[in-house]
Amino acid sequence: MPQSLVLNYLHITFSTKNRQATINKNIQDELFRYLGGICNEHESKPVIVGGTNDHVHLLINLSRKIALMNLVEKLKSHSSKWIKTKNDGFGNFYWQRGYGCFSVNPKQLDVIKEYIQNQEEHHLKLTFEEENKRFLREYNLDYDERYVFD
After folding, report:
1. Can you tell me the distance from the alpha carbon of 112 to that of 108, in angstroms, rounded to the nearest whole number?
2. Terminal alpha carbon distance of the chain
């Protein structure tokens, strides 16, 4: 095949350091757009970006030109630097060290989009830690709980 054709839909999630509720309502939409812009810069089309005051979810189509770990590094480092310029209240803003990433069947995009759109309501019943552990169980991933959260 002379052409490289790739379709990699991924659901990426990561939290603020120690899940501190530092992503307030005043900055959320702008932060989500900023994260989507970073994805676009790296030809990884964002389908939706959302989250709550302590974590974010991104549903993207990962470009064949960038490794996942490099994209996540850029998302976290660039957005962390950016948010600190918004006002003094974000001077101690940091993301957790790790991240979760799960492949998504293109036929399930609407389900994941709705899930991300309803994060505020969803997290009235479930913490980020509980949500993350559920993903790990659903995807049958082995993990050491000592290192999942920081």
Report:
1. 6
2. 44
